[in-house]
Every structure is written in C-alpha cells, then in structure tokens.
Amino acid sequence: MTRFLLLVTMDGGNVDTPMLEWDEPDMKAHLQYLTDHLDRLRESGELVEAQALTWPSHAKVVRATGVNAPVVTDGPYAESKEILAGYQMVDVSSEERALEIAAELSAAPGPGGVPIEQPIEVRRVMDSDADLYDVGDLPRSDPAM
C-alpha cells in the first residue's frame, strides 16, 4: 500500500461563489457528499486522516532568521484560490486508485447540484530515501546514488 496526500485548496473549481454564500440546501448537499465520501474511504480502510483547516486569516508564517528570534507574520499571501483548505491522506494500492478518489472528491456538488470540479492535488508520501532522488530528469550530483 502507498500513501497519498490529497490537497484541497480554496479554488472553487467552476464555482466563483464562496460556499458560505450558497443556498442552504446546496451547502447541505455538498457537505453530505463529502461526509459520504469519507465514510466510504473509512469503510474500505483507505482513509488514514482527513482534516479541514481554519480560515486563512488565522494563518501565521514563521521564518527563522538564524540570528534573532523567529519572525512571525500574518499570512499566507498567496492568491486565495491557492490557499490550502484541507487534506485527506489515503493508503491505497496504486496511484490510479488515489486519482480515482481525488476525482470523486472533485465531483462534489455545488449550487444546483452541479459538480464543482475543484482541482485536487495528489502527492505521494515519501517512503524511502530513494524518493529524495525521484525528481524526473534532474541529474544526481553523486554518481553513487
């Protein structure tokens, strides 16, 4: 089994209206879909963890200067659609299965029941030192590696 992290951002896919502004039945349908999705993953034993994050206004960015105390600022400063909203970690038999789960998550209904097609980033969790060097076509600096 291999672990994958499914990253959910604030990018609303094909819906520009924030969920808190949707009609109540649409919001309830969306949240029920997500609950059912997680229940299926729990039942199959594929869900490791899932968490939603607080609003970006609660975020802090910490930078260690190496000389003085760390600098703490409000943040993040990325575009709002790039801000991490939550994640699911799954333990699945293949990357294909992780992609299937991400597609199901992306298909959550929005206003009028139309799938929002929210982009979900799928990243494999490193499980060995070899993963450090799995960077595509980049050459390794040490020929022994």
Task: Summarize the structure in words.
- The protein has 145 residues and is an alpha+beta fold.
- It is built from 2 helices and 6 strands.
- A 4-stranded antiparallel sheet has the order 2-5-1-6, covered by helices on one side. A two-stranded antiparallel ribbon has the order 3-4.
- A hairpin with a 7-residue loop joins strand 3 and strand 4.
- It is flat, with a radius of gyration of 19 Å.
- The two termini are 25 Å apart.
Main attributes of the structure:
single chain; 145 residues; alpha+beta; four-stranded antiparallel sheet; two-stranded antiparallel ribbon; 2 helices; 6 strands; 23% helix; 25% strand; flat
How is the topology of this model organized?
Blueprint: E1 2-9, H1 24-44, E2 47-52, E3 60-63, E4 71-74, E5 84-92, H2 95-106, E6 120-124
Antiparallel strand pairs: 1-5, 1-6, 2-5, 3-4
